[in-house]
Amino acid sequence: MAALLGVLVFSLCVAGCGSGSKPAKAQVLPRLAPAGPRSGLGGDAGPPVAGAHRAPRERVPVLIYHVVESAPAGAPSPGLWVPRSEFKAEVDGLAARGYHAVTLRQLWDAWHGQGLLPSKPIVFSFDDGYASQYTNALPILRSHGWNGVLNLEVAKLHTTLRPGQVGAMIRAGWEIDAHTMTHPDLTKVYGQQLRYQVSGSRRWIRRRFGVPADFFCYPAGRFDAHVVAAVTAAGYLAATTTNLGLAGPSQPRYELPRIRVTPGDGIAGIERNLQAATSRQTTDSRTRE
Asked: How confident is the model at residue 30 (pLDDT cuts 50, 70, 90)?
């Protein structure tokens, strides 16, 4: 009990201490439960077969989604809401164009000679943790035999996403990665508080769900050198940002770019963003050369 109270008190300090700002409302985090059986590579669906190939240098698009349903009137951050019908059309459109969903772990293994990728691989990443990621995104992806990557903010459990739903996502082949405990701006967090957010979220996910949580996602894409050092020290294999681009093994592994999907994009918008990401990657490569 004393340990649990310590965790709760410390989470409150993260929200309101050390920054000179007013204390935020208390966030009650879910309690740790005994770990269940381990699930290998975080629910990895197994070796891909469609156009299977080795990919030591391949760059792959990683899409960013948040809420997969229509935004109600007056909803905060409406740009984070993609209606279910749009999401389905986007998934169906990408499938029709020959894409195949993979996890970050599948990418990492293929880049390092430990696995294969399918033809035209793409990653569907979902930030924070919302019920619609389970109720809407999961069945739509599963209709194509695809999985996703949930970047889980631990504080979302029991509020917008239930642990049982996360467990079902893991059983469906989803990968669960860390997105901190309470989603702070990590560039303003230091010392023990930073370790709690970065290392603590990984430990929590590993103990609760029995998955590796080998990848980290920066809240709101905010990071700097001291944040990258904390992610490195926590033992993550890599981390994803909100920077536009295609993720590849030649990039700094704690700065992997992604492609944001917003309401109204549709398959045409995603294709435009894919082209923009490819063009930026080409320009960056020429600049380095």
From this structure: very low
pTM value is 0.84
pLDDT tier, 50 (very low <50, low <70, confident <90, very high otherwise): confident
Residues in CB range of 136: below 8 A, 6 or more apart: 68, 69, 84, 87
Nearest CA to 63 out of 267, 209, 211, 284 is that of 267
Please tell me the least confidently modeled range out of 1-10, 63-72, 223-232.
Answer: 1-10
Residue 57 burial by Cβ neighbours in a 10 Å radius (0-12, 13-18, 19+): exposed
Domain ranges of the chain: 56-183+244-288
Whether 148 contacts 124, CB under 8 Å: yes
One of 3.20.20.370, 3.60.40.10, 3.40.50.720, 1.20.120.1810 is the CATH number of 56-183+244-288, namely 3.20.20.370
> Dihedral of the CA atoms 106, 205, 155, 179 (nearest 10)?
-30
Q: How many helices (H) and strands (E) does the chain have?
A: 9, 8
